[in-house]
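User: Structure please.
Assistant: Input sequence and predicted structure:
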Amino acid sequence: MSRTGPRLAAAMGLAALLLTGCAQPGQLGSAPEPVPTPLPPPPPAPAPAPPAGPVLVATGRVEERVTMRTTGPASYSVRTVVLQPGESTEWHRHPGTELSIVQSGQVTVLREDDCAPTRYSRGDAVFFADGQRHLARNDGAVPAELVVTYLLDPGAPVRSAVLPAC
């Protein structure tokens, strides 16, 4: 018997082992490895429920006498105004009354009937009579946030620019 038979069989077995180690999944009859499927993104968090009952938006104290009257229907609105440091409303007036509460920061106010600057801080409120020319500015280093309430003539512009009073 020849010696090449067992050597050939051993070489073939060794080659089979080497080739088996190089084979990709599924090439030698085994099932391919599953490809991982990415998970879907988590659902967005639900929006917080609105608070129940009345919610206090702002509170402030007006130090001067306040008189509000209308001769007919009026348009009532409330809005938030933010003045950045150095920003001003410029001189203007409204066709009705304005009541503003300082929520944060400080504002300096000038009025046509009193050109001495008056500073208002958090918790202070300022009232402007019907048509009173005024200017508010932020002389501070942080934004000033105001909650502004208007009682105005319906259909009229909310404000109109005027010449400086001071």
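The radius of gyration is 39 Å.
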